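Q: Here's a chain of 312 amino acids. Please give me its 3D structure as tokens.
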Amino acid sequence: MAKRPRIAVIGSANIDLTTFSDRFPKAGETIFGQKFDLGFGGKGANQAVAARLCGAEVFMIARVGSDLFGPATIQNFQKQGIDTTHVKQIGGVSSGVAPIFVEPDGQNRIFVVKGANDLLKPADVDAAADLLKTVDCIVLQFEIPLETVYYTVTFARKNGIRCIVNPAPAQPIEISALAGLDYFIPNESEAEAITKMPVRSPEDAKKCAEKLLANGLSGVILTLGSNGSVLASRNGIEHMPAFPVKSIDSTGAGDAFIGSFAVFLGEGLPEREAVLRANLYAGLSTTGVGTQKSFYDRARYDAQWAMRSKSQ
């Protein structure tokens, strides 16, 4: 039986407000949408839920607001079986929210209002230090302050803890502050924004990954949606194919990839297989609506892997 990983996610918790429409309105125009969905989200929370559904023991470190979404978010974590000891409610601020607009082909556009997420500070990492020293992997994103991300990467390196950073949403960074990071996992647009290099194909992605490695990162994975992903390290660069699925909503697919990848690595699987498995987990998440609600549990996922992995 595979080892059960312990994973800490230091990151965001939002409420997703998803609207489906045939097109987006022009400036000053009002149109009717087709349907609306409200759900729990935030890149950190999504990655935590994906990791938990894949079988890990998961600890969330986050901040929520004093509005009606705050207690509901904490209750959702607890319902999912995620430890909320370090999820705190902050008075006088809103919880994070993410209005999401989805086109018929599943492509999405997202606004993020960080709210309480912006108040997750390095001191909060220190407050959770005893717990963090017991985990197999720490997962971070960019919906919390960058100073907290940099501080945590340094903490992880000092304590020999595997660390994954998802630079989403993309913003200017001090790449030197991430030196030695185990895994840096952007999608195409995030990689373009950070490196100023086009990423329109797997070959572009390989060149972009080379540049990121040259800046001192130990490992880079570029997620490419229906084109799979590119795995890059000092040992080489390889395009990892996607699995064919009927996608209806790609929201949260990157989070599904990262949460599941952390688990597969933590179980001791070889890096390449962990990426392939995460490709499938992410692809399957696009066959349902929303983020956390569309993620597969481990039993459903394992059945799909057993059926599909023979073709890879």
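Q: Can you summarize the key feature?
A: Residues 66 and 92 are 6 Å apart (CA to CA).
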